[in-house]
UniProtKB/TrEMBL annotation:
Its cofactor is FAD. The gene is murB. The keyword Oxidoreductase applies. GO terms for molecular function: FAD binding; UDP-N-acetylmuramate dehydrogenase activity. GO terms for cellular component: cytosol. Pathway: Cell wall biogenesis; peptidoglycan biosynthesis. This is UDP-N-acetylenolpyruvoylglucosamine reductase. It comes from Oceanobacillus picturae.
Length: 314
């Protein structure tokens, strides 16, 4: 049983806090931090402790600390494909945004888990490397992209991934080839194995700068013209059901524009739910459930969430 210390961290001299600042810099450890500041939806209550490690060794040490102290531990990622409930998250929450290095050698790019996959695709462009064009509009981090085998416009992370470095639940550092990640449509075994992705190695092909740029510009135009980027959202809410398009099913169910509180099914793209007007996580989640129930009733299709929901109710 993991210790739940909500209400115990009233002062910064809490033992867990003290041990965390021994592992990493004091500025990397935040108490009672609002997670709405760290999610694309701008939803979520407080984390008891939010920690942003700067090295792989710090990540390992924090995992081992959580294990030894029996403290609940949650990996947040960069919060792009995630909904945090209004009650927040107990224990230690880890954000890897500071592991954001991007290094290129020949046809290979090694990117830290916290780097934005968009920035990795831009680095590939600058190095005249082809293969990551599809990722130029994916808002998530490298770690998140591996977690769900992110993809768009016919490309997937598994197509270009060679290997990854991860920390396992015991705090061990592992290097895994892509074949051991069991990647499929929007899935991998990373959640099941509870791995923490530290970095990814991508193998690309030499290409022509203008050709790569033309593809990326075209995909960026398609994204900006079709997606509701003017509002906070978690991106595409549902996986594509076999034989259908989630957005088309939602649109044909007359749900476009449907609103619960401040959450709305986007008028621009029915596959998106946006935080239009100060929504709470409970409103956002209620709208997801309403969409699923309505589409199931009308078409007999069960929409499966692509977005992950974590945390406690208020």
């Amino acid at each position: 049983m993991r210790n739940n210390f909500k209400g115990m961290i009233q002062m910064i001299n809490h033992p867990i806090y003290e041990k965390l600042i021994e592992i990493t810099n004091k500025q990397n450890v935040m108490v009672d931090e609002l997670l709405s500041n760290h999610t694309y939806t701008r939803l979520g209550g407080k984390a008891d402790i939010l920690v942003t490690p700067e090295t792989y060794e710090e990540v390992q040490a924090i995992v081992k600390l959580a294990n030894s102290e029996m403290v609940a531990f949650t990996l947040l990622g960069n919060g792009s494909n995630l909904i945090v409930k209004d009650g927040g998250i107990r224990g230690i929450v880890m954000n890897l945004k500071k592991l954001s290095s991007i290094q290129t050698t020949s046809n290979t790019i090694v990117a830290g888990s916290g780097a934005r996959i968009i920035d990795v695709s831009r680095e590939a462009l600058e190095r005249r490397l082809s293969g990551l064009e599809f990722a130029c509009g994916i808002p998530g981090s490298v770690g998140g992209a591996l977690f769900m085998n992110a993809g768009a416009y016919g490309g997937e992370i598994k197509d270009v991934l060679v290997s990854t470095k991860v920390v396992d639940p015991e705090g061990n550092l592992l290097t895994l080839p892509v074949g051991e990640l069991e990647m499929d449509y929007r899935t991998s075994n990373i959640p099941e194995k509870k791995y923490i992705v530290l970095e990814a190695t991508f193998a690309l092909q030499q290409g022509e700068y203008e050709q790569i740029k033309d593809v990326m510009d075209d995909l960026t135009f398609k994204r900006e013209s079709k997606q509701p980027l003017e509002y906070p959202s978690c991106g595409s809410v549902f996986k594509r059901p076999p034989g259908y398009f989630a957005g088309k099913l939602i649109q044909d169910s007359a749900l476009q524009g449907k609103q619960i509180g401040g959450a709305q099914v986007s008028l621009k793209h029915a596959g998106f739910i946006v935080n239009k007007d100060g929504a709470t996580a409970s409103e956002y989640i209620a709208l997801i459930h309403h969409v699923q129930e309505t589409v199931d009733e009308k078409f007999g299709v069960k929409l499966e969430r692509e977005v992950k929901i974590i945390g406690e109710d208020a």
